[in-house]
User: Fold Cell division protein FtsK from Bacillus manliponensis.
Amino acid sequence: MKLVKEWFHQKTLKHQLIEVFKKAGLYLVHETRGGKVPIYPKIHAISEDDKRTQYVFTIPNGLNPQQLEKKWFCFQQILGTNIKIEGDIKKFVLNVYYSKVGLKPYLYSYSQMKSQLSQHRLPIPVGKDEFGNYLVYDMVEQPHLLIAGETGSGKSSMLRVILATLIQHMSAQKLQLYLGDLKRSEFHFLNKVEHVVGLYKNRNSLAASLLKLSRELEKRGNLLDETELSHIDEYNKTGNGPLPYIVVCIDEVALLHGDENVMDVLDDIAAAGRALGMFLILSMQRPDAEVLNSRVKSNLTVRMAFQSADKINSRIILGTEGAEAIDQPGEMLIKLKKLTRIQAPYLELEKAKKIIKPYQIEKKLELVSPEEPQQLFGVLDDETEG
Assistant:
């Protein structure tokens, strides 16, 4: 009797996954004399333990594996929101977790992730997965980051986590930060940090700074051409540097919508910045398809989606639904090669101030008057390289 129950249970689990394949359109159609026959992914194994149900399946030849990511929401609608898919091209492993045990809120700790940071040139901390493992990635390998989330979702804390970690891990000789704080609410506590070249609180001052960065981008490109090298890291090894990594972090980038000069520079950085050591971190409350052109967006290779207002917003940032179902602050879906559910650490503002205090110095930040950008664009357009 027990074997019969287990057999029926396995059939039920298999039927659920086949139902996902049907609803998501994850199948090929084979023409026969009797009509059209759907060819679904083949389920090879189903196993269970006290934490999860695991499926192993392969997709038929000719089915685009990217469709699994695009139809992520179908898996969640039928199997639950706490799922994870691993694999590529042909074979995949799907884990359906019973609870969010590994996704509990927790406080930021630099020491706990320090060993992983040292493995990367420009480490970006993300958070913990279902098993409590830290995820850290290298921005040099995965350039440019887009962060989106509703008020209270954990987006602001995530920005503090990333910047505080970079400041602690890297010297000001190896890292320069350009911060756009257009809502005047996120980066004020960083204005005396040695790494911070400028803190820009309005469109005009930020525009002038980005224009200078555009010139720096061109200068670095010329240096690589002259030395016949392909990456700024190679140039620094020649003894001519060092040229620091430059990270441009702009909160609420949607406020720049309509400024073609600014968007053109962001476009250039997104397209060429990786090899030249210049990177973008852009955040917005609600992702708008009209704010970032398709070229900029396609080069933002990493996306962090905290709680989104609706399915449309989730699709804009991730290419699939799912972020609208997030109900816990700090929880995100990150698109980094694959889609993964992560719990980010929480770093409150007062603690962040204490962390960065040792890195503060007396200095005058780069500031630009509201009128200067318009003058600069006209003057520098006429300049020639000497």
